[in-house]
Amino acid sequence: MPRSLPEWIGATDDSKVPNRVRVRVFERFYGVCHVSGRKIRPGEAWDLDHVVPLIHGGEHREHNLAPVLKDPHREKTKIEMQEKSRVYHKKAKHIGLKLKQGRPFPGSKNSKWKKMMNGKVVRR
Question: Between vectors from CA 52 to CA 18 and to CA 45, what angle results, nearest 5°?
């Protein structure tokens, strides 16, 4: 019967996961990437991913971690961040907050520059 170990829980969301925990998570998933479903080969770069993302209420603990290859992890994180941004903007708009827009189009009334009839660009 295997020795039972207490589950690792990070003190903060930024806490580094110890190597012993990385090994346990890797073995729990039999070395298979959580996102792509492909076996992680020796020497391949891999990360630990939160199954339930922290931005969606997941916890920084051992049972919420899974091994994932670097490239699929980047793609998954990119999609999650786009979703988080979209949800934030919808909430902000719903409650009436005005969000700062990107840079104004050069020459528009919102720009600090204007072009004179003679072609010279001056500050408004």
Answer: 45
**CA distance to 98, 105, 115, per residue, from 123 (Å):** 26, 14, 9
**Res. 57 pLDDT band, cuts 50 70 90:** confident
3, pLDDT greater than 70: no
pLDDT at 2: 62
Assess whether pLDDT exceeds 80 at residue 101.
no
Token readout for 96 is 């009436």
What topology is assigned to 19-123 in CATH? Answer: DNA Binding (I), subunit A (1.10.30)
Domain ranges, ordered by start, for the chain: 19-123
